[in-house]
Amino acid sequence: MKYILSFCLLICIGAIQAQQSKNYKKHPYWIEMIKDPNVNYFEAINAYDQFWKNKHKPLEEDELIGQTKGEASKEEKMESRKEMREKKKEKELYKKYGLECKKFEHWKMTVKPYVQVDGHILSKEEQLKMWEQK
Asked: Do residues 130 and 122 touch, judged by C-beta distance below 8 A?
């Protein structure tokens, strides 16, 4: 009887823990993470990478500017309805998260010099102290 009860308790704890863990693939937690000054750098990078895994990230302007009109129209020709749905879904993602991707990439570039080994990002005060010591 004790074994059955402990087994049920173990399953319940596992289910509760699974519900509490963040699903980075479905929700863009990285958008809120970059606004938090106490965020762990590596966790934010992981959330971003998990969200965009198996998806195409929005193109940069430089990549779009070099593209001619003929190339764009060739890409828009689809062979099947499935491809059309995927392309439409991708465009919606671009509209929704294109600017946020740029913000994230900029955040990543600006905080990278201040990331500690454990992923902690130095605060503005700590950055100022480090600059004054030089």
From this structure: yes
Contacts of 116 (CB under 8 A, 6+ apart): 122
The DSSP letter of residue 121 is B
- 90-128 pLDDT, tens digit per residue, is 788 778 888 898 999 999 999 999 999 999 998 889 889
3-state secondary structure of 115: strand
pTM for this model (two decimals): 0.63
- Residue 64 tokens read as 């779009």
Quickly count helices (H) and strands (E) in the chain. 7, 0
Cα separation of 105 and 100, whole Å?
A: 9
Question: Which helix (DSSP H) or strand (DSSP E) does residue 21 occupy?
Answer: none
Vertex 49 angle, CA 94 and 109, to 5°: 85
For 1-134, strand residue ranges (E) read: none
| Phi/psi at 47 (5° precision) | -60, -45
Q: Which amino acid is at 100?
A: E
